[in-house]
């Protein structure tokens, strides 16, 4: 059964939206100017901050003109990421191997002081 999450976004701080699978995303520009947004997988410590240290961009600087909506139907990676048994591994260059990443989550943000509404379909 699908679950729908609603979030109002403003400003350029990351919001932790959890690691549960994303099967669809709709972002509506409710601002009076064009906006951009980012979706990343990153450490939970990025929540409420602007730093993207350790973040892996899924969607970056996606432009949404005034009065428009961006719709994203997730691929198999995002739609199964939060499933039982899924593991996120990060390549460690020093060790030349992948290692399980800890405390990772999806984070979303807008650029500057923009405002938008987002709807996430989760499975």
Describe the structure.
The chain contains one helix and ten strands, in the order ββββββαββββ. The protein has one helix spanning 76-80, and strands at residues 3-10, 15-18, 24-29, 35-43, 56-64, 69-73, 89-92, 97-100, 104-110, 115-122. The strands form three sheets. The chain has a four-stranded antiparallel sheet, with no helix packed on it. Strands 2-9-4-5 form a four-stranded antiparallel sheet, with no helix packed on it. Strand 7 and strand 8 (97-100) form a beta hairpin. The mean pLDDT is 89.
Question: Any key phrases for this structure?
Answer:
four-stranded antiparallel beta sheet; 10 strands; 123 residues; mainly beta
- What is the mean pLDDT? 89
General shape: globular
- How do the helices and strands follow one another from N- to C-terminus? EEEEEEHEEEE
How many domains? The number is: 1
Over the alpha carbons, how many angstroms does the gyration radius reach?
Answer: 15 Å
Beta strand %: over 45%
Percent helix:
under 10%
Secondary-structure-derived class? mainly beta
Strand order of the largest sheet: 1-10-3-6
Under the CATH scheme, which class? Mainly Beta
Low-confidence stretches: none
Alpha-carbon distance between the termini? 6 Å
| Tally of helical segments | 1
What is the name of the CATH architecture? Sandwich
Q: What does this entry show, briefly?
A:
This protein is mainly β and 123 residues long. It contains one helix and ten strands; from the N terminus they run ββββββαββββ.
Task: Give me the secondary-structure topology.
Elements: E1 3-10, E2 15-18, E3 24-29, E4 35-43, E5 56-64, E6 69-73, H1 76-80, E7 89-92, E8 97-100, E9 104-110, E10 115-122
Antiparallel strand pairs: 1-10, 2-9, 3-6, 3-10, 4-5, 4-9, 7-8
